[in-house]
Amino acid sequence: MTTAPPARLSGIGPLLREWRERRRVSQLELALRAGSSARHLSFVETGRSRPGENLVLRLAEQLDVPVRERNALLLAAGYAPRFAETPLDDPSMGALREGLDRLLRGYEPYPALVVDATYTVVAANQGIAMLMAGLPESLLVPPLNAMRLTLHPEGLAPRIRNLRAWRGHLLAQMERQIALDRSEALRAVYEEVKAYPPAHEDDDGAGEDEPVPYFALPMVIEHDGQVLSFVSSISTFNTPMDVTVAELAIETFLPADPATVEYLRSLTP
């Protein structure tokens, strides 16, 4: 009489192994971090054992799995999702929206915006509106996408003096996120903007090899005949408990030279 192989207790094994390999962590190291054993973790990955809910969450935390994907791991293990995904316009998000609006207004006249996981613009201040002035209406139809607005040949791209370097920086940033988060939606945006033709037929990156006296790569952009320089900074929420909040990012543009500061302040009533 032959014995049938044990049935898989859950579908979490392949997902967990994929995240572990993405983070380049051994079974032993992950098990020690999560307070388990390499043997048990091996059984989980091969489908021979079902992990407890708390262990799933500990493993996800040690692997820095995005909040959305933590829900996927829980579901694959047979548990209910732990993290809600609340629309930003829900009444319960009122304090968050108010806080974001206050932050953006407080940063004016310097540009700042809030984007989600695919760079869809959630909120922006007057500094961003100033940079986008004059863009074609076809690009300003909601929902706005920050990467599309920046790299589209009819968007900000023709105004960016160091477009080749800045474009390379943005594409590399998206590549890192795709590798970490497995986001197909973000990959679609990446493939779209990567395929954009040069903003100018003579776009050869002229001037980008010149010495740049900045502390970080700036975005050098023209506005009404004035050359402005900004350094970008991105902030996220610490220990988010909601998928929507976890995927928000606040990007602020810090003036990189005194001329930019003086010009922006001159626009402030």
Automatic annotation (TrEMBL):
InterPro entries: Cro/C1-type_HTH (IPR001387), Lambda_DNA-bd_dom_sf (IPR010982), MLTR_LBD (IPR041413). Residues 16-70 form the HTH cro/C1-type domain. It comes from the Bacteria. It holds the Pfam family HTH_3. One of its GO terms (molecular function) is DNA binding. SMART domains: HTH_XRE. This is XRE family transcriptional regulator. It comes from Streptomyces antnestii. The lineage of its organism: Bacteria, Bacillati, Actinomycetota, Actinomycetes, Kitasatosporales.
